[in-house]
Design brief:
This protein has six helices and seven strands. It is of the alpha+beta class. The protein folds into three domains: 89 residues, no CATH class; 43 residues, no CATH class; 110 residues, Sandwich (Immunoglobulin-like), CATH 2.60.40. A four-stranded antiparallel β-sheet has the order 4-3-6-7, with no helix packed on it. A three-stranded antiparallel β-sheet has the order 1-2-5, with no helix packed on it. Helix 2 packs across helix 4, helix 3 packs across helix 4 and helix 5 packs across helix 6.
Length: 277
């Protein structure tokens, strides 16, 4: 008799424990999901319900790309069940909150890793561009003058006198130049264009040479309205070596890349992208 009473008491205790266990999300069907989500929410303390709502939304949104998990908005039970039943079936309210928190941590870790990779890429690109700019500066334009001469046949011919020094350790065969021709009192340039100049025989390291270039007299350089007091500004944009291959031509950062780099440095400036993980 006593054994039967003990067995009955044990069975009753087991049933009470089972009956008092935390309710779980059931996404086996849409009606079950709708009911179970609300039941799980109601079982939580009031102070946890907002956190639970946000956790449900974060889990549901995790199956979509382009969703901002850090600023999730509450979704109703039907939307949640339809979009994320595989992620939350059988979970209690606290487990839902824990899973959402884990998703956010993983998301932040991925975003941080991507940001550090972008930071490393932009810093590498900037360093290469600065290095190449310094190397390119060793080939310098000593002087550049524009004037109109008269040919033996009486025709007006535009001329650019150009003197260049090759202070680099590479032979130079071709120059890529940007020329701007202006005159006092005139806002618009008479000429603003880029052009190549092929150096006959090349320019060896340490050499200085002077050439007289003959732009097309039927183009903008040959405009007979250009005054004699015009000023020529030549900028060296690129250099080719003896084989005709570009030297020191790493591109600079774009304006958007500069802004991105500054923002990443402000946030991750003290982190080494190679050792962050």
């Amino acid at each position: 008799m006593w054994s039967l009473l003990r067995l009955s008491a044990l069975s009753l205790t087991t049933l009470m424990i089972a009956g008092c266990s935390d309710p779980k999300i059931d996404t086996s069907s849409m009606p079950a999901a709708v009911v179970s989500v609300e039941k799980v929410r109601d079982s939580l303390p009031a102070y946890k319900r907002d956190e639970f709502d946000q956790a449900l939304t974060i889990i549901a949104m995790s199956s979509f790309s382009g969703i901002d998990l850090l600023n999730a908005q509450r979704m109703n039970a039907a939307e949640i069940a339809e979009s994320a039943n595989a992620y939350m079936h059988g979970l209690t309210g606290d487990e839902i909150i824990e899973r959402a928190d884990k998703m956010l941590r993983e998301r932040r870790a991925r975003e941080r890793e991507q940001a550090l990779q972008t930071l490393d890429r932009l810093e590498t690109k900037q360093a290469r561009a600065e290095h190449d700019q310094q190397q390119r500066a060793q080939v310098s334009i000593e002087s550049a003058d524009y004037y109109i001469s008269t040919s033996p046949y009486g025709a007006f011919e535009p001329v650019i006198d150009l003197q260049v020094t090759n202070g680099s350790d590479q032979e130079v065969s071709e120059l890529f130049l940007h020329g701007v021709l202006t005159s006092p009192g005139r806002e618009t340039a008479w000429v603003d264009e880029t052009f190549y100049y092929v150096i006959a025989g090349g320019l060896a390291p340490g050499e200085t040479a002077q050439w007289s270039l003959a732009p097309n007299r039927f183009g903008p350089w040959g405009n007979d309205q250009i005054p004699r007091d015009s000023q020529l500004t030549l900028t060296l944009l690129g250099i080719n070596n003896a084989q005709g291959e570009p030297l020191w031509n790493s591109p600079s950062l774009s304006e958007n890349e500069v802004a991105k780099l500054e923002a990443l440095r402000a946030e991750y400036g003290g982190v080494n992208a190679h050792t962050a993980n």
